[in-house]
Amino acid sequence: MKREYSTIPDSMSEMETYGFSWMEFVTAIPSPLFVVTTYKSNGKPNACLQSWACFNGSPNGFYAILSSVNKSGHLYHSIRETNEAVINFPSLEFYDKCSDTIANNGFDNDEIALSGLTSEKASIVNAPMIKECFLNLECRYLWEREIVEGSSHVLMCLEIVNICAEEKYLDEVVHGRYGEEGYLYNIHYPVNPENFNGRSHDWIGTLKKSKDMGEY
Questions:
Q1: Domain that holds residue 103
Q2: 83's torsion region: left (phi>0), alpha (psi -120 to 50) or beta?
Q3: Of 2, 77, 127, 153, which sits most exposed with the smallest number of CB within 10 A?
Q4: How far apart are the C-alpha atoms of 135 and 26, rounded to whole Å?
Q5: Residue 106's CATH number
Q6: Residue 63: what pLDDT?
Q7: Residues 8, 17: contact at Cβ < 8 Å?
Q8: How does pLDDT run across 59-74, given as a tens digit for each residue?
């Protein structure tokens, strides 16, 4: 039997949502995890662990849509100042160090180095990239939108202009991009509203291939 929820369930009425919609916790739809890196106006590397994004393209280009960029944060201001950034995808091995960038986010800090990671110059854009990440997408700013007028966060579109990929990840037979060493997903605080007791947990997930859909 399906349940329907158009208003917040009673069990979640006192839940601290930290600025998110209660619907996000009921649906718990996974979103990819990555680190966006830029240069701050003082030249120091900025690193921001992010999720809530999609990646799509057309014959005209390939784009990253970041759906929750805080207008008061270093990431937003540095992208608007430079119009360039790198999106870095870590494996589970390096997730903890990438997470440490949250604690090391001072304006005067080299947020990559302080987190135990290695900064490299991107090939095309003026932004640092994280050496330990298996995939780095060099990007240029295209546009932004407020999803709701007056929101503290914006939806931002970046055009991907260069891909830097660890060679072993490109061969699906040898290693590939999936499984425990591949892409990470943010499973944000899944809640069962039928029996929620005030506590839940965030999770990190990985992907595995399940069904061959045939050749193209």
A1: 30-206
A2: left
A3: 2
A4: 31
A5: 2.30.110.10
A6: 98
A7: no
A8: 999 999 999 999 999 9
Task: Please say whether the dihedral angle defined by the alpha carbons of residues 132, 76, 73 and 187, taken in this order, is positive or negative.
Answer: negative
What is the C-alpha to C-alpha distance for residues 188 and 140, in angstroms, rounded to an integer? Answer: 28
Residue 22 lies in a domain: no
**How many structural domains compose the chain?**
1
Q: Is residue 37 part of a domain?
A: yes
On whether residue 214 sits in a domain, the answer given is: no
Q: Let me know: does 134 contact 183? Beta carbons within 8 Å.
A: no
Q: Which of 29, 45, 149 is nearest to 88 (CA)?
A: 45
Answer yes or no: are the C-beta atoms of 127 and 38 closer than 8 Å. yes
Q: Provide, rounded to the nearest whole percent, the portion of the chain with pLDDT above 90.
A: 89
Q: Token pair for residue 51?
A: 């999720």
Q: Which amino acid is at 9?
A: P
